[in-house]
Design brief:
The structure is a homodimer. The first copy, chain A, has helices spanning about 15-20, 35-55, 60-65, 75-90, 150-155, 160, 180-195, 235-250, 300-320, 340-350, 385-390, 430-435, 445-465; strands at about 95-110, 115-120, 120-125, 125-130, 140-145, 165-170, 200-205, 230-235, 255-260, 260-275, 280-290, 325-335, 360-365, 370-375, 400-405, 420-425. By secondary structure, chain A is α/β, with parallel strands linked by helices. In chain A, helix 2 (about 35-55) packs antiparallel against helix 13 (about 445-465) and helix 9 (about 300-320) crosses helix 13.
Amino acid sequence: MSGATHCPKGVRPLTALAALLGCASFPPALASCTPLRADATTGVELFRESATSKAAPAPYVQDLADGVGPRPAGSENGHKAVAWALDKMKTIGLQNVREEPVTVPHWVRGDEHAELLLPEPQKLVITALGGSVETPEGGLEADVVEVATLDALGSISEDEVRGKIVFVNTPMERTRSDEGYSRASPVRSGAAVAAAKKGAVGAIIRSVATGNARFPHTGYMHYEDNVAKIPAAALAVPDAMMLDRFIKAKKQVRIRMTAGGKSLPEVTTANVVGEVVGQEKPGDVVLIGAHLDSWDLGTGALDDGAGVAMVLETANLIAHAAERPRRTLRCVLFANEEFGLSGGRAYAESHSGELANHVLAMEADFGAGGAYEVSFLAGPAAAKPMAELSAPLSPLGVGLAVPNERHGADLWPMRGAGVPMAEVAQDASTYFDYHHTADDTYDKIDPPTLAQATTVFATFAYAVSRSVHDLGRAPVKKLPF
Amino acid sequence: MSGATHCPKGVRPLTALAALLGCASFPPALASCTPLRADATTGVELFRESATSKAAPAPYVQDLADGVGPRPAGSENGHKAVAWALDKMKTIGLQNVREEPVTVPHWVRGDEHAELLLPEPQKLVITALGGSVETPEGGLEADVVEVATLDALGSISEDEVRGKIVFVNTPMERTRSDEGYSRASPVRSGAAVAAAKKGAVGAIIRSVATGNARFPHTGYMHYEDNVAKIPAAALAVPDAMMLDRFIKAKKQVRIRMTAGGKSLPEVTTANVVGEVVGQEKPGDVVLIGAHLDSWDLGTGALDDGAGVAMVLETANLIAHAAERPRRTLRCVLFANEEFGLSGGRAYAESHSGELANHVLAMEADFGAGGAYEVSFLAGPAAAKPMAELSAPLSPLGVGLAVPNERHGADLWPMRGAGVPMAEVAQDASTYFDYHHTADDTYDKIDPPTLAQATTVFATFAYAVSRSVHDLGRAPVKKLPF
């Protein structure tokens, strides 16, 4: 087979297929036998076909969700998850598998329960938002004042709020994209500060959630220096709707809530990293990531077990592809996305010297829905190469990549170095029914759907890692928080 | 208006409508101006049209679920529910509104939590079945042995079960009718006895539930004399599926569970009864019922707030109908259906002398779904009158009544007296996603759908109470438990 000596190590001749395609020397090291683009496209299409039939990400989710379970930042299970990820990467056969130390906060949830006292006694279903201070011994008892939005809270008088628990009742819209969540989630992060500024003694929010299952949804919230730190919790949607009915009927609503948690000393854990080293441009990094941590209520199957599985199965497919990548595919399973992006920050800092060589970064952190679009945030001339790189996705139901600023949260710190980003948009129509609740469990995964999303993710990552396109640099932006 | 003097009290002349229908003397006392059947049909059709536009049952559900909340047998809220029901019946203007004393058991749930210990530690979501004894101090810890069905449990050896916790993992089929529930619920009632007979120390079941939301479903279970009373609990479906995955993978599964409850002294509460007394045959009783109690986990909006609302709104519509019933419509809101049919038993006993005059009994206790069928269990010659009585339901999407043995549980004790039964079958496709869980809350009600079911229920009850048909007697059957 002529040209075989030029093939990179790991390339397996596919003689029959090569003959079928009319290429005598298929598939040796590609730059050396055929023009780059045609050849790369062919290789990517072959990869896509293989991935379509082979991609099996769901067992990774099952193994992580069942076998490790909830793995919040700083927890013992966080360490188990690191060991789990190292083992999986080694089993796949990745190169340079390693832990990169990350220091994470360690907040632990306390007992939580709440009771409606007026107008009629009844249990309420709540959960503390992540990082909330604890309510006083015996619970926090106060009247409730409802506002529809954070803006509305900003405009009412302190007299109406002082000494009360503020209830921010903002429903979340169900959307396929991230739009519903993007609009609703600021309530969760900002309610405590906004309420405290008006003199409130506590803040409760309608869960940032689609649907009306009686699960409260936890998630990150923040405090500000010089603003009183008041306890903050999410009500399950049915309970929020009930309070709203009472308040709309002009009834006095009074509750007692026990919620919050304690901050323990920081813990050192790790980002878990493994690579398929590029054959031609090993210093060029195509980063694919997901986050290994989860919230504490469920088993983190969707958030972000699904993303972890997409990354590991992508790595598996690419590590065993007929043609190895030209650029280095680097898989990063980040520590603590949920509670402050510790892993993303640590990665950007410790790799600051090579971020200029990160040609693209992608994170899978939007559940287990089907992929319907690829978007990118890159240099001004990136549209054309992105179109070429995404063209092979068409048979998977995904059109040419479109410009869009969205990307995984762990990638934020890399924007300071202008690293180009891409995002495989997944259908999130039902994701926020489960997200950050006890109901985020493995049974919510539909394996064929997750396999489709993985195939899109993997094929696009493969296309980029096989290419030598310059995607330019994304506009530099500092982490806004 | 000729014939007006023959109109029963309460009948309001509808002159314009009468003219439109070409009936000079419409609507006087019907037997006295036109042949019964045509006349009754016309009256029922007018009632149906009025009910279609006026029926508004949902506010009753909201008021009961939000304002009283969970109301299990023997609870303080049970008394509040009785007061609530008396008030509603009086407000409607029912006659003979009264409490009829019922003694009910009083079981109270204790703390409940469970942990998977092997193969990997993780929380499990469980709830005690109603009536379960308590686990020992510190919880019950044992290996788990899984069986697919109660039959399978019957056929395995005691050696495989002794000292273990039996896990009965029978999935429930989603059906529009009661079929799925009828097939699955014996697991709940019978698992503890079947497991104890084999030497098990505890029993857990996959929740009798459709869907896979992480709510455990409680419900009635029983013990037998001379069989050890072991604790029994339901696992949420996701947790049951996880145990099954571990066991199928040949992993040792060991759990620790804290669950069960205490039986307190019996409590005297009441069935709440009110009537629209028949104009012509006041001794003939058409009974419509629902149960006032609920399980303790949710607010009992679907089970059986919806049924209570259907009965109250039916009473409201009939009490204010243009033509009053010939027979007495008796509304009974039963105490304690869930935990042993106390109210149904007490009613049958205290009214034994007049059950021969109960021409029909109907109970609404199958959620808030749309009505799609009416069925009956009556005498051998009942098909023809049932067809006549149900013919006006056609515009509501319900065909002629069909024979079927199903009926509400509270009516069981009346079968000993051969009381004919009817059932308005409601679509239960999603009912068992919520049934007996914390998620049975008011937001699960779709008011127009519940109004349709109520209109069917009310129109049929009205047709029977307006008629003088003899529906015969149903085959006598003794309460099987």
